[in-house]
Each structure stands twice: as C-alpha cells, then as structure tokens.
Amino acid sequence: SHDVARLVDAMRSGQVQTLVMAGVNPVYDAPADLDFGGALKSVPHTAYMGLYENETATACQWFAPESHYLESWGDARAYDGTISLIQPLIAPLYDTRTIDELLAVFAGPDGAGGTSAHSLLRESWRDRAGGTFVEQRWEETLGRGLSHETQSARVSPALRWPALASLLSGIARRTDGLEIAFQRDPRVYDGSFANNAWLQELPDPVTKVTWDNTAVMSPATAAKLGVQSGDVVVLALRGREQRAPAFVLPGHADEAVTLRLGYGRQGAEEVARNVGVDAYVLRTHEAPYVDGPLKVERALSGGSPVRHELATTQMHWRLQGRDIVRQATIDEYRRDPNFTSAQNSRQPSLYDRYDYSKGDQWAMTVDLSKCTGCGACVVACQAENNIPVVGRDGVLKSREMHWLRIDRYFTGEENDAEAVMQPMLCQHCEKAPCEYVCPVNATVHSKDGLNEMVYNRCVGTRFCSNNCPYKVRRFNWFDYNREIAETVEMVKNPDVTVRERGVMEKCSFCVQRIRRAQINAQVEGRGVKDGEVVTACQQACPTQAIIFGSYTDPDSNIVRSLLEERTFAVLHELGTEPRVRYLARITNPNPDMEEKA
Fold first, then answer.
1. Do the Cβ atoms of 255 and 174 come closer than 8 Å?
2. DSSP H or E segment with residue 2
3. Backbone angles phi, psi at 307, to 5 degrees
4. How far is CA 518 from CA 205, 422, 514, 539, in A?
5. Treating both helix axes as pointing N-terminal to C-terminal, what angle do 117-129 and 135-144 enclose, rounded to 10 degrees?
6. Distance between first and last Cα of the chain
7. Cβ proximity of 484 and 458 under 8 Å
8. pTM for the complete prediction?
9. Summary mean pLDDT of the chain
10. Would you call 363 helix, strand, or coil by DSSP?
11. Are 365 and 449 in contact (CB under 8 A)?
12. DSSP states of 141-210 as a string?
C-alpha cells in the first residue's frame, strides 16, 4: 500500500503521463484515503488489461482483454527458483492477448509488437540459453514442464526482529472503544473471484451466509448496541461511513467488528455487481488490517430499524445434547478410546439383511479432526456434478442445490464458543428411508451399496426428501440450464446428466467415476485397485479428511479408516446403516490457557 501511495502522489503531481495496469483493480481495492480513482483522472493516458471489465477497466481510456491462463503461453518461477513453462490447454475463445504480448508492444519501435506469446517465450529461452539452445532441448523442457537446472541456491536468511516488530505494530493497532478488523473473504478473497457464482453461493464457513458480507460481532457487543442479526448498522470510521447488515456470532471477540473484503463491486461483472457492501471505503493504507475507534449505530428509516434479510443456509447452531457430532479432548480419548462405540451397533430391523459381501462395496469416511470447513469439497462437488446455482432469492427460500453441505455447530458458552464442522452428504444408507416411500421406484439401491437416483423416473413427489433424516436431497424447482451462455455450457461435465425441472437429486458418490474405473478394470481383466476411484470432494480436500473406497478390499485405506476407534454413524439409532462414517474430532487444548481463561 505504501508503493501505491507513492504512485498516487506521482499521479497527482503530473509525473505520470501513461499508466498501464494489468491483473490489479486499484480503483476498487486501493486504500480509501488515497482516492486512487480521483488521482487516475490526472493521468493523460491510461490503459488496463484484465479478464474482466472491472472498476479499474471502466475508469481507464483503454481496456485490453487478457487471455486466460489456460489459453496462454508463458513461464514462471516456483518458490525454489525453478522455472516452469506455462502451456495452454485450450485455444483462445476470444480475440485476447497475454500480458507478455502487451509488454512487447510497449517495448518500443524495436520491440516485438505483434509477436505471439509462443514466439516470445521461445525467443526468451533462446536468449537465456545462448548457443546451447536446440529444438530437442526445448521439446524436452516442454515435456517435463520445468527446467531443473534453474533451481536457485539455498539460502538461510536471518530474521530481522525490528522489522517484524514494526510490521506487527501496524497490524495490531490499539484503539479505544470498538475496533474493526478487515479480513479477506474465504470465498471471493479480496474481490478477485467475486464474479464466480459458485463462490458467491458457497456459504461462509462460520456464518453460513451466502451472496453477502456482514458486520460480524459478538453476542455481548450486539446486546450492548441493541443489534440483532439482519439489522443494518452504520459503521463510521475516520470520517467515512458504510452500511452493512449485522451478524451476531458466538465466540467472536467482544468490542470488535469484522467486515469481509471483496464485496460491493461496481464494475461491469454481472455476477459480482452490487453483491454485499464495499469494505474498502473504510480501509486506509495506515491501518489496512485493524483500525479504530469505530462507531456503530443502527440504521433507521422513519424511526424504525432497517432490516436486511440474509440468505443463510443454517439458522440453528446448537447440538442440544444430540450426538450428531462427536468430539473429545486427547485426555478424554485416552481414558475411553471407544467412546463412539455405541454409535456403531446395528439396530433391530423387520427387513432381511441384504448380502453386501460380494464385489465392490463403496464407503466413505470423514475425519472431523482434519476438516476445517473450508468448503472446497462443496465447490468441487458442484463443478463435477453440474449442480446449478439458484441465486440469492433461491437461497432465501431454502432452495440451494448443493449435494454436499458443511454443517456448523457451536459448543460451549456463547461468549467462548467453539465451532465444529461436519460435512453432510447422502449417507447411502443400506436401509434407506427414502427408498421405501418413492411411488415410482426412482430412488433405488445398487448391488455395490449406492443409493441411486433414476432421474427419468422421478415425478417430483418429494416423499424421499420428507423421509430423509439427514436432509440431503435437493428438489430442482426450475430449469436452471435452459438459457445459458455457450461458455457456461462448456463448464458442464459431459459425463454427468444435466437434470431438468421437477426431479430430486443428491450425492451419487461420483458414480460416473466409479463406473469408469470399473469398466477400465474389466477391460484389463482385473479388479478395481484401492485409490483408483477418487470422488470429487475427496480430490479437492486440502487436509485429506475424506477417504473413499471399497470395504470388501481388506487392505484398502477405507477399511483401515472404518476400523478406527473414533468411527461413528450419524443418527445410528434410526437403523439406516449409512455407508458414510465419521471419525470423531479429537482436540488437544492447553490446560494452562484454559485456567487463565
């Protein structure tokens, strides 16, 4: 931000005649006290290159559409200095250029204006290699994707403690009264990904709010201010104001308000525009992370509080003594390692048990000690299975279509609550309540243990959803794929059916991946190997909390996971016998810190 401040000063003083920007959006996200947009008007010639016509592109005289990285040639260095070659996966969809091609134009009359990015890359490597450049070496480097000999020498840097202390002092500013914390949003980041509808509809990991950002505060602070969730509050800081809906969050720090960045966009991006509020209007370059004192008041209209309805996917947050999520401290686990055993016993049943001992039998485990609730699995499932986006209005009517959701519960007291995350998807029950009530036999069971949906049989009675105790079935209220752009159609997975209006849908354990692996194994005259089938959620999980496989393979990872002492089934008392099992969350709290608290 300090470099931006110097640039703004130079712009205002007339030292900048031409300003070219690429891959940034300072008109939107530069510190408010710098007024980058106002300073930009002092520059005679301005140009912007980017993927979207954002706020900065709109304020510039020229806008050059940039090629997507999947369409581009280029190179980059890894953390250790190794150079990797960037190769396009698809041909450019539009008449766009890369940043390298743009810089070549600005290189001057002797530059390489009009030269393709591929040629620029080859010439760069030819100059780097000198006389040793040969076609074979170029092809070998392309094949590897990187050049091993470019690795940097290892260094052991010394930590500069005074600089670190100075940095921390800038982050942790002490203020009198309320303070405000600016955080990058875990979904749209700093606004760079705000035009992605998948991310806009992904619930916030903690608040579970979609299509919005909120002024988050603790119950004690909210009570002091007389504020409830959904009340619009006026945030006043250093002579600037912004309105935002409040959200009361158990466990949040008192005397503080958290406001997420990345919303309130005003560019030409259709999805991002006017979603949430712009937190950057309060953020200064001197205090980009924490600032104060903050003044918070309820917004009034005609003497009545202004309300903003939040599109939240989970209202209730108490377990109320139920064993839906099991957790224990490490000491409790050592004293009783079988504390979840009661949730693994079979319940009596009037139905004969089917023999599931032959062939592949698919199952999944989710380790709650590893799950952070990030939501990567939710978006991966959405991308893999062509799950539609319903928008803010749809979420407000509880019509979100996610096959996989992250349930969030709080434990402990309101002022010292701890969040617990639990991914919840179709449990693929061996005795599935949904199957008994379907009048058209649309939801059936496969021989390998999958609870399947036959879409062209479904007539939309929704009996199955009513009878599902896990509430993981989704009803397709509208034909969300009728009128979509050609480029959006290209996002669809061709291996998965695009469902029409009026059918139920749910997790299928990525059956298309299962059947593909089984067909390949059959062609090769063998069985499916452990780890050969990887579900989309499992593939995307950054902590590897999800394990999937066939439990008829005694040497598989899923069998080892199912034999863990921490394993339990959710709502086991109903006798549904789910194929999804959870591993209880084990924590290791510091007793000294608990005593101080």
1. no
2. helix 2-12
3. -115, 150
4. 35, 30, 6, 18
5. 110
6. 37
7. no
8. 0.89
9. 90
10. strand
11. no
12. HHHHSEEGGGPPPP--PPP-HHHHHHHHHHHS---SSEEEEEEEBTTTBTTTTTT-HHHHHSPPTTT-EE
Closest CA relative to residue 86, chosen from 132, 133, 77: 77
Tokens of 532: 């050969």
pLDDT over 90 at 421, yes or no: yes
Q: pLDDT by residue (tens digit) across 455-510?
A: 999 999 999 999 999 999 999 999 888 888 888 888 899 999 888 899 999 999 99
Name all contacts of 438-445 with Cβ < 8 Å and 24+ positions apart.
Answer: 438/463, 438/464, 439/463, 442/504, 443/504, 445/354
Pairing of strands 45-50, 18-22: parallel
- Distance, in Å, from the CA atom of 524 to the CA atom of 479, rounded to the nearest integer, reads 40
Distance CA 349, CA 429 (A): 14
Among 369, 36, 424, smallest CA distance to 203 is for 424
pLDDT confidence tier of residue 235, bands split at 50, 70 and 90: very high
Cα 157 from Cα 148, distance rounded (Å): 23
pLDDT at 461: 93
Q: Look at the chain and count its residues.
A: 597
pLDDT digits (tens, 9 = 90+) for 30-68: 999 999 999 999 999 999 999 999 999 999 999 999 999
As given in the structure block, the two tokens for residue 235 are 């945030």
